[in-house]
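FORM 7B: Structural annotation worksheet

SECTION A. Query
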Amino acid sequence: MILYDFSSLMHRAVFSAVKSVNPHKKDKKYVTDEFIGLAIHRILSEILDTQTQYSKKYKDIVICFDDHSRKYWRKELYPDYKAQRKVVREESEIDYESVFKHLNVLSKVIDDYTPWRSFSVQGAEADDLIAVLTRKFAPFEPVLIHSPDKDMIQLHKYGEVVQWSGLTNKFVTHDDKGPDWEIEHVALGDASDNVPKITDNSVFSDNFKQYLDSKNIKMTEYEFNKLSDKGFMSDYDVLNSKGHLDVFNNPRFGSATLHKEIKRHGSLDAFLDSNPIYRLNYERNKILVLESGIPAKIEANILVRFNQSKTDFEFDKLERYLKHYNLNTLINDFRVLYDANSKIVELTVENCGF
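SECTION B. Predicted structure
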């Protein structure tokens, strides 16, 4: 089974297409129509190339889509999850609203007209789909994960699982795929997804301490983190060097410091219990970054939607879509694939099953 993270592929294709075309700008945004055809070409070409290179061993391709119809389940648990992504898109020179209109249609075309399985699940990310399917099928068949996301390293333990990064054009490996890697991953968070380190938000800044004193408020960092209503801060407007409210003074904390603290306290649990915020953050991060945190309902829905996914090959309709973007080379490539899939096998004594 080949599991494709469509979001990663899509972003790589869009960035490389913009770089190749160097499109004009309108209202400080690149003109989407000037590069979107090349982006779509690169998306479909890469999947076709992957099928040619790997399908003999790994068989079916499964395109895993993010679902944008509602909040991701992680964002409901932790509202700041991937919060910076929206800001980055809004500030980008790429008009993502326009780009997504084209790529949403492409997703539908892949789903309805190509022979590849593809699906999404409400409230889930492509990462969730890949995790659940790897866990389900890797014990019985080889799995190729097509994603640069190092979160996927935790899935390598489930069987004959390999991971390819289209970003680096290398296989993703890690010397230690066991509990030490997972402990580090949970403790250090994931900056790309806005998941903080467990030591973050554990020490008030001097400015915020002075503010609390001026308000005659006695409060610990743990009590502050547990508050749902922080209305008392309505007039606090001191910003730190990154332009955020200067509430916490987050210490430097990396892999070496983590293992030093574990050794100093005698165990991971003893270190976590040395500060109630460390334990609180660690338990939150376990759910956010480990595949074991995927809710049972989401997992069940993933398996149902996978079993419902189609493999019908509607070449005529796919051809009309590709002609709209003048992707004639792809039309020929898909025609070859269609002819191979449609080849009628002549019945003989040797292959008729008797």
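SECTION C. Observations
The beta strands are 2-5, 25-26, 29-30, 61-64, 117-119, 143-146, 161-165, 170-171. The two ends are 30 Å apart (CA to CA).

SECTION D. Sign-off
Analyst initials: ____
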